[in-house]
């Protein structure tokens, strides 16, 4: 058990970095929750955890697909990032279509007077009594950045866990025809999902409500969440590495 | 998403210690009975999972009454995220003591995350540390209990082969999390009562047992799977009837709206 931990110290460091990236990425994603679903706040009308999980799991799937053909880490990370960015961008495009053509509101932010990217005035278009509505350009760009970071983090965690399994002598690509698949891939994937959820919830406690993206005043709180995620992910990494190393004994 | 708000301590009902005892003792007893009895009795694991679900739902009720600012579901997902890590770790090194090791590891992870949430992030919820320990423990016991239903034992090899490698773990993740996060999320409001919330948790746990029983047919055969589902359906029926009775008790009035009007009556 101790040998496994010391033998995989580099992978544990990479898992921790992945967890921190996921935690940081959550702050970029424009989350509106129930008020946004009623077009009374900017962002996507659901919670941080659901969005981060959606982007992260898509990233995991696309990283896993890339691992079919190559074990080049930068390519795998890029594949995970692009998968997560596509997922979050499509969600936001459809959300904007619903806001503009379904609800009939102009995407506008109440947190800044001028959109930092397009330089358009925002305050003129905000309905009275609301915190803005829709997904202004800056939120869209911020969300795509968040998806990319989350995808890199998720695929880094998954890749590291697979490498831990390889280091104890488990084959990677042994796909069988049986109903039950490769135990290493399954355990690595479910641990990546567990680490993803832990690191998606911790920053959402930090945000506590809506966030529009990197221009939001709340964005400045991210160091707290990143420090918390760092400590929590170190614990998770120890637990996951030991459990995967024990698979070698089966 | 400004769900919740500045709330306060959850009031009324059974004390937390009672529910905690039901969750820990019932959960572990169910998991061990399901492991050591013949495969046909694996529904004991599901009954253990129901006890743990009730405990988890009560812990969510107590911590979410303060207002998390992120909605109640996030805490259920956190419970199962911590639970997956702790349960597989415990089974991998624990042997016969696996569930107990998993439970202790879950308590440690939960305690650390609770302390981080209060000290570093500064949520300022007085019971955050204790509630996180309880929620992580309950999530772990739910996963272990439902894994015992599907695999028939909590041996690491069997669980990895029959629960994790074929993807049923994802199913357990969602139905177990639903049992912990849904009861308070559905019942919250000024007239929330503990017995009604917890009865909903029993009902959700029974649905989880039915679904896990369905999944167990792959490995345990149709007879054992049928028995698992039968026990689940019986528990679900009693819990649902009781929950409906409690709704009628707490409602101001229960009235029939009649059938939809026909097109002639509308003119």
UniProtKB/TrEMBL annotation, chain A:
The keyword Iron does not apply. Pathway: One-carbon metabolism; methanogenesis from CO(2); methyl-coenzyme M from 5,10-methylene-5,6,7,8-tetrahydromethanopterin: step 2/2. The chain crosses the membrane at residues 9-29, 49-69, 76-101, 140-162, 183-205, 225-245. It is found in: Cell membrane. One of its GO terms (cellular component) is vesicle membrane. One of its GO terms (biological process) is methylation. It comes from the Archaea. It is a multi-pass membrane protein. It is an enzyme of class 7 (translocase). Keywords: Cell membrane, Membrane, Methanogenesis, Methyltransferase, One-carbon metabolism, Transferase, Translocase, Transmembrane, Transmembrane helix. HAMAP family: MtrD. Part of a complex that catalyzes the formation of methyl-coenzyme M and tetrahydromethanopterin from coenzyme M and methyl-tetrahydromethanopterin. This is an energy-conserving, sodium-ion translocating step. Belongs to the MtrD family. NCBIfam families: mtrD. This is Tetrahydromethanopterin S-methyltransferase subunit D. It comes from Methanosarcina spelaei.
UniProtKB/TrEMBL annotation, chain B:
The chain crosses the membrane at residues 12-34, 40-60, 72-94, 100-121, 133-154, 160-185, 197-215, 221-240. Pathway: One-carbon metabolism; methanogenesis from CO(2); methyl-coenzyme M from 5,10-methylene-5,6,7,8-tetrahydromethanopterin: step 2/2. Keywords: Cell membrane, Membrane, Methanogenesis, Methyltransferase, One-carbon metabolism, Transferase, Translocase, Transmembrane, Transmembrane helix. One of its GO terms (molecular function) is tetrahydromethanopterin S-methyltransferase activity. It is a multi-pass membrane protein. Its EC number is 7.2.1.4. It catalyses: 5-methyl-5,6,7,8-tetrahydromethanopterin + coenzyme M + 2 Na(+)(in) = 5,6,7,8-tetrahydromethanopterin + methyl-coenzyme M + 2 Na(+)(out). The keyword Cell membrane applies. GO terms for cellular component: plasma membrane. One of its GO terms (biological process) is methanogenesis, from carbon dioxide. Its main location: membrane. It is found in: Cell membrane. The complex is composed of 8 subunits; MtrA, MtrB, MtrC, MtrD, MtrE, MtrF, MtrG and MtrH. Part of a complex that catalyzes the formation of methyl-coenzyme M and tetrahydromethanopterin from coenzyme M and methyl-tetrahydromethanopterin. This is an energy-conserving, sodium-ion translocating step. Belongs to the MtrC family. This is Tetrahydromethanopterin S-methyltransferase subunit C. The lineage of its organism: Archaea, Methanobacteriati, Methanobacteriota, Stenosarchaea group, Methanomicrobia.
């Amino acid at each position: 058990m101790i040998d496994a931990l010391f033998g995989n110290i580099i992978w544990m460091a990479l898992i921790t970095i992945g967890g921190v990236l996921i935690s940081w990425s959550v702050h970029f994603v424009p989350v509106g929750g129930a008020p946004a679903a009623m077009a009374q706040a900017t962002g996507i009308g659901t919670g941080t955890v659901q969005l981060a999980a959606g982007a992260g799991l898509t990233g995991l799937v696309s990283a896993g697909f890339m691992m079919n053909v190559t074990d080049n880490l930068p390519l795998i990370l890029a594949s995970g990032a692009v998968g997560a960015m596509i997922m979050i961008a499509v969600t936001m495009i459809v959300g904007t279509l619903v806001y503009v053509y379904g609800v009939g509101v102009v995407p506008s932010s109440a947190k800044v007077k001028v959109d930092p990217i397009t330089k358009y005035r925002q305050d003129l278009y905000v309905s009275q009594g609301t915190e803005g509505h829709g997904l202004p350009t800056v939120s869209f760009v911020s969300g795509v950045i968040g998806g990319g970071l989350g995808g890199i983090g998720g695929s880094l965690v998954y890749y590291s866990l697979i490498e831990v399994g390889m280091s104890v002598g488990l084959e990677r690509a042994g796909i069988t025809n049986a109903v039950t698949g490769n135990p290493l891939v399954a355990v690595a994937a479910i641990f990546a999902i567990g680490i993803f959820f832990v690191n998606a919830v911790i920053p959402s406690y930090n945000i506590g409500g809506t966030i529009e993206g990197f221009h939001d005043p709340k964005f400045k709180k991210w160091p707290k969440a990143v420090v918390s995620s760092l400590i929590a992910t170190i614990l998770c990494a120890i637990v996951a590495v030991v459990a995967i190393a024990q698979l070698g004994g089966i | 998403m400004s769900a919740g708000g500045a709330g306060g301590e959850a009031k009324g009902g059974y004390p937390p210690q009672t529910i905690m005892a039901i969750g820990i003792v019932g959960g572990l007893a169910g998991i061990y009975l399901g492991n050591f009895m013949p495969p046909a009795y694996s529904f004991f694991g599901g009954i253990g999972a129901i006890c743990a679900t009730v405990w988890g739902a009560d812990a969510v009720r107590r911590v979410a009454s303060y207002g998390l600012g992120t909605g109640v579901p996030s805490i259920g997902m956190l419970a199962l995220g911590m639970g997956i890590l702790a349960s597989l770790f415990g089974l991998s090194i624990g042997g016969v003591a696996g569930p107990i090791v998993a439970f202790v590891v879950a308590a440690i992870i939960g305690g650390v995350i609770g302390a981080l949430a209060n000290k570093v992030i500064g949520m300022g919820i007085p019971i955050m540390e204790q509630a996180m320990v309880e929620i992580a423990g309950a999530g772990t016991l739910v996963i272990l209990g439902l894994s015992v239903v599907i695999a028939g034992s909590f041996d690491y090899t069997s669980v990895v082969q029959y629960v994790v490698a074929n993807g049923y773990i994802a199913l357990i993740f969602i139905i177990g999390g639903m049992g912990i996060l849904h009861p308070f999320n559905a019942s919250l409001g000024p007239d929330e009562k503990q017995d009604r919330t917890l009865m909903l948790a029993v009902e959700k746990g029974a649905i989880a047992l039915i679904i896990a029983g369905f999944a167990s047919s792959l490995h345990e055969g149709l007879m054992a799977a049928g028995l698992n589902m039968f026990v689940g359906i019986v528990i679900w029926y009693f819990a649902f009837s009781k929950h409906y009775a409690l709704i009628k008790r707490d409602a101001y009035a229960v009235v029939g709206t009649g059938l939809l009007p026909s097109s002639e009556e509308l003119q």
